[in-house]
Design a protein that fits this description.
The protein is mainly alpha-helical and about 130 residues long. The protein contains 4 helices and no strands. It is about 80% helix and about 0% strand. The longest helix has about 35 residues. The relative contact order is 0.04.
Length: about 130
Amino acid sequence: MSDRLPLAYRRQLLLTRAAVERVELHRALDEFRSARRPAVLAAEMLFRLRGAAHEGGVAGLLMQGLALFRQYPYLGSALSLALGATRRGAGGRLLRRAGVLAALAAAGAWAITAVARDRAPPPSNTDHPQG
């Protein structure tokens, strides 16, 4: 007695398996498309950045930004494409200058808060008075 199925049965099983895998692939692609809509991505990024800002300050924001670029590698490509399009024309020059000014303003704000934090007096211990 042979353990092998007849050729017609094996063929039908392979066709059925291919059909099931095709349906599963379509379902997974639909889920991926719905999760990667711009509104969903923007909400997810804002939520992550807000949490990183509260947890670790500038370093937390940078680490969260790196994590986003690792998780969504096409973000780097889109950013590169957008920045490459700004090389030509007066609009590009204006956008680059605005970007430089924004970066300088962000660095200045970070420096001011860092200096203010360093100059702040240490918290006094009023719960347990000495004496």
